[in-house]
């Protein structure tokens, strides 16, 4: 472990201005940047089920082979996704102006000429829930909220529900369309997309998100007290039988009889940005760290990387992986899918018998300034299905999410938002953990 | 002057956390916020020559009357402008992806299905200028640059020329289209629009600007060494005989025989944002300060406000004002058209006989932390024509422009970008200057 903890990349991450000298550290850092830069530039936006996502799989398989991974495979599957159309919104009266809007995934579809209706303002999801049955007939609901930035991304649960549930609730009360304040924390005219879900028996209605400045504008217009009419055009469609797939690869361990360590990320992105923080960075981090963990001696256990497809539209890649590989033993799973800012906390889900293993991980991360968190690790969507199926042990390395929801699912999720120093710190932290768990000779127990 | 220099709004601006108590100061600050908020919300985007700009004139005239201005008038004129159409751009190969683009004002028009061509990369305007004649035949030029933020906005001269001149130079060498890196300093997927100009004898070609992250993406793709094909659709049109107009109003002075002080801003905005910093804030500042200067005793000289139309597309409002009012005497002109961040510097253009007047202004601004600048004041586009025609004295209050070109001409120019504390400091500084020049009994001399 000493060579990892003292790596030049780690020093560079911790001490700004320190030059990077050790060749092996430079190499691992270069791998991470090479992946996040290459995937976002040479492929670009890669919506689940699109031709671009197919190009991403080819790019990913080629990249893993070039980096020395073995058993590299593309594992195709078919899924239901959302194909974007034209997205526009405008205030018709009392102050005609255009709004920055995006359709939500699985939105209903408007005619090409759009729909128009009176806007009904709700300050929160609870206010919408309290609206009487039928009260939104023929109207377009607007749901505001007050999400704030947080290091652990805590706001995405409750405020993300405005997006996940709001349109369905509005539809159930008769609305012909729904618009939400983006589930985000920035101040730019870049709306945040993401999937919405429809309760059983509720027919989808057109559902979009406006940027935060536009939501504030709507709230100000509402405060003027005049009726507001709004026009909405969202021509995208929910589409069955779209092609997607996972890419997997392995760095074989010395003892093939031991269950492997599974590390996951997702290859698809929303289509507004190029998915740099969500989640090219995750693939960069897990892959560079796996290589780093193998750079001295070959690890005892195999490390398998999963670059999953179609995470954004429903976690279909993780589900397909669990279906395809649920019969194979796994020791432990980890995932990186929360950007590339600094890892500040480690959480675990380990059986009582593996308490000593957990303690060693926490102690090894301590010099990197990473604190132990008392919460239970959950992995993430891409490894969650196999974790649940096999009751796997899990380690989470939590990234600082303070600015994550400034960028999440927006056009602004681009390469320039990745801080190379923070990316290197992620690789350092992951390499520390993989160096321990992939060299663990004892049994890593199931957790339930 | 004492009541102004000690105003609570000024204290609030200088000492964060100090509550605002003095009623008259609250009032002036409220006027400024009321104007910038009202114009951007109740009117919204207001492109020169549009129905929205007409609504802005009606809104402005009503607002000035409500605030107690006299001789309020809308002065219509006809001009040539640019009517936006559909703006899209995408990389066709080698890595298909969409780009965030805006047409530049006076761009040529593509067919509805767009144009496509090989992209030729130029790292700078000089590199484009050096391209051989005819070398761009059938191609689309991309012009990159390296504009950086500056307190005095110094980059807008040279790097703004990439926008102003680049497309015409590309056309003169045979290009079928031109794309520039936006003349801006931010890192968001929001391109910066603005006018481009065509040299005599050069037929306009489609000309757009991509956001800065998109420009970086293009540069990275270029570095891969493969030919790049790009598709561009910009269907807007240069249009003659569009209706526009100025709004003027006066706060009469005690001595109507003395030439008035003219203070200007512009009412139109680009259509991507709501023109909060460019230039609703300017109208807010000059108007609130004029009222403040009159709040104690009526000033000696009349203060005339000019809310000009069609500044963005060629300064037509300022030209129309000079034509309509060039026969009337004016004493001195000022303009606010550089956002609403803190005033940090004062510059003047005064005849030698008025040196003492200039010294008094500098001394009065010193307690607000505003430094004297040795450069020559120029007013701005809206008052520039009358300044030139009558060789008027000018005072400039320079705002901090460090973040101005993050927002300038983008969708992000919205109300949330205006800092109320900095806005109040602007009003304070302007009120100090207007309090001096509008009470100057001596002759304010022409400068040339």
Describe this structure in words.
2 copies of one chain form a homodimer. With 448 residues, chain A is an alpha/beta fold. Chain A has helices at 2-5, 8-14, 23-43, 51-66, 125-129, 156-172, 212-223, 276-293, 316-325, 355-365, 381-390, 404-407, 420-437, and strands spanning 70-83, 87-93, 97-99, 101-103, 115-122, 140-143, 177-181, 207-210, 229-234, 237-251, 261-266, 303-308, 332-335, 343-349, 371-376, 393-399. In chain A, β2 (87-93) and β3 form a beta hairpin. In chain A, α9 runs parallel beside α11 (381-390). The interface between A and B is large, with 37 and 38 residues.
Question: Secondary-structure map with pairings?
Answer:
The structure is a homodimer of 448-residue chains.
Chain A (H helix, E strand, L loop, with lengths): L1 H4 L2 H7 L8 H21 L7 H16 L3 E14 L3 E7 L3 E3 L1 E3 L11 E8 L2 H5 L10 E4 L12 H17 L4 E5 L25 E4 L1 H12 L5 E6 L2 E15 L9 E6 L9 H18 L9 E6 L7 H10 L6 E4 L7 E7 L5 H11 L5 E6 L4 H10 L2 E7 L4 H4 L12 H18 L11
Parallel strand pairs in A: 5-6, 6-7, 7-8, 11-12, 11-13, 13-16, 14-15
Antiparallel strand pairs in A: 1-10, 2-3, 2-9, 4-8, 5-9, 10-12, 14-16
Helix pairs in contact in A: 2-13, 3-4, 3-8, 3-13, 8-13, 9-11, 10-13
Kindly list the characteristics that best describe this protein:
homodimer, about 450 residues, alpha/beta, Aminopeptidase, eight-stranded mixed sheet, about 35% helix
